[in-house]
Amino acid sequence: MDVHLRLQQVFREVFDDDELEIHDHTTAKDIPEWDSLMHVSLLVAIEGEFGIRFASAEVSGLKNVGELRGVVETKMG
Amino acid sequence: MTDVEALIAAGEAALRARARELQMRSDIAELVRVAEALLAGAPPSLGRPMAAAFLFAAREHDRAAALYEAWLEDAEAPAAWHLANLAASHRKRGDAEGVRRAVARFHPWDLDPDARRTAARALAAFPATGRTLRVALMCTFTADQLEPSLRVGAAALGLSLELYVGEMDLLRAEIADPASGLYAFAPDVVILGTTWRDLEPHDPDAQADAWMGLWRVLLDRTSAQVLQHTFDTPPHAPLGHLDASHGLALAAARINARFAEATPARVSLVDHAGAVARFGAERWCDPRQWAWAKQAVTPEAAPVLVEEILAVLRALTGRAKKVLVLDLDHTLWGGVVGEDGVAGLSIGPPSAEGEAHQALQRYAKALERRGVLLAVCSKNNPEDARAPFEQLDDMVLRLDDFVAFEASWDPKPDRIRAMAATLELGLDSFVFVDDNPAERARVRRELPEVLVVPLPADPSGYVAALHRARAFEALAISTEDAGRTAQYRAESERRELRIHTSPEDYYRSLEMVATIRPFGPGDFTRIVQLAARSNQFNLTTWRLTPAEVASLAASERHVCRTVRIADRYGDYGLVMVVVAERQGDTLDIQALFMSCRVIARTVEQLALVELDRAARARGCTMLRGTYVPTAKNRRLVAGLYGDLGFECTETREDGTTVWRRAVDPGNPVENPWIAIHREE
User: Fold this and answer.
1) Which residue of B has its CA nearest to A6?
2) Which fold has domain A3-76?
3) Which of B432, B449, B476 is the endpoint of a domain?
4) B288 to chain A: which residues are within 8 Å by CB?
């Protein structure tokens, strides 16, 4: 199953928008609700979806969805 | 096998994963096809909700909602994720009432945080109805993740929430400032959400005073109920085991005790520390989430904490239940009294099943002591239903503990309706506990106001199931509860005594009373159970059968006694059995076994007291005992007869020893610590 589609599904559930489309260049600025608290919810949901665990520093400097997907794919091996 | 048949065989989790995968691909046609196949090919209890889940994923909200609603009529404890789907479907359909109906079915035994988030969003899409409660969350951590569970839980109680979430760093400042947003909000409830991070190891009394000072300010300036979290303890204390005596754990315990000693009527304690302990302190907080956003509670733990807050809100808003209606057969005891007879029932140890039923009785008894009314609703002949309460010593509940006793063959909903009329209470005050799913379904269907507790098949889970319903929360303990408090105090006194006094003073302080009887029919089951279960304190390990017990009871040559023990702290029931046979001028002890629950308090010596007495009454001059070693009984009883003044006269090859003790007609054996009642 495609990592991008799974990520998009997680975004749709966390941000309560089942039309939401994400792209590699999508950033927090593109999704109004994406604040620091929602960021934690998003990370928790992504961890649950992919069965991975982020290190605390790994996710602080991410610039966009593409980089987030990169981390997820690395974690999944 | 078709692909859908394979999915059905793989079960609910596989079906759910498949629906999600198709949803991600937006494969609407396939979602609908699988839903149709599920309706055609799966049993309705699985096919209906899963087909609804597939249709929901396909955004067929009308059909999904209709299927879910049909399923919910029969579903006893619907999974939270199905209810969240239903609430979301109703939201899309614009059906506010449907959303509220779905949310009202959320139960504390399924604490899925994602489902709560979805349901809370569905609720928030419509204007509030019903009574509104204005709740200020003043926490020393980020509290936003509590909101979904709070909203869902409140809606299940028929309440709408207005929430005010204070800034975590400004808690004291906001309470101090009369012009702060907190007071402008005019809260009905202020939750002071604190954690161990707020504690210092030194001077706990000053810290307690400071928190209680905040209560006073809030009570002065608002009409709100203040909900104070008890303090938990850190999962990783640098002082190690000394933390309990020198560190934050001590401070937390001391402050919590100060809170408990002096809670004004308008302050309630939220059992935060208890919730953390039950869930597990290490899982309660994820250190990364604390670092990222000062979240002290993980999303998974948040509903657990919220349950504790809701318990207080339930009491505060008068939602607590008043009557616990209990079934009898397989609920309050194991077995069916009409078929098995009183002697065939299982209640209390040593049977595991009996222990479980007795635990439920004990829980109900505790509820009764703090003012909950108990009632019986059983399909039985009235005299059969009453007999166990009158005849079995191990029943915790007695007939006079019940305000209503309905034993008949009428439908239970009719009987409960009649009870409500007699007691002049609404049906929404009633909680129904019955092991039989069909009876539960009928009460659910005919009396939707009654809270029906979904019991698991195994009686060992009954107490937990009843407890999780949190139906009987009260704001305060009434004066009748003094008895329970005294008992707790006595228990700790007993522990103190054992540590600080001589054995003799300890035995005397227990105020033990023994009841010694010949074998009676009401005890046969119990004797057999004790014979089967006693491994350590058992001299000959004779596993008595029911037939042997009956024939021993009828035998003229045998002395057969049961011993019950009670002390000032409680009743242990039937704990020791002795069987001896007259052989000429010797009384030969053939069975002697005892429950380990009454070990080391001279109860075993009663066997000698009683046999010595029986020997003299029969003109016997000698007692003879036999010890047959097993792997389990060596440690406790290899030397028992020696301790009781017997002399070893024979040692056989297999290790069996034979002991004798002369009977002194002028000098009966006594036990100075246990008062003996004999029933012939």
Assistant:
1) B24
2) 1.10.1200
3) B476
4) 54, 56
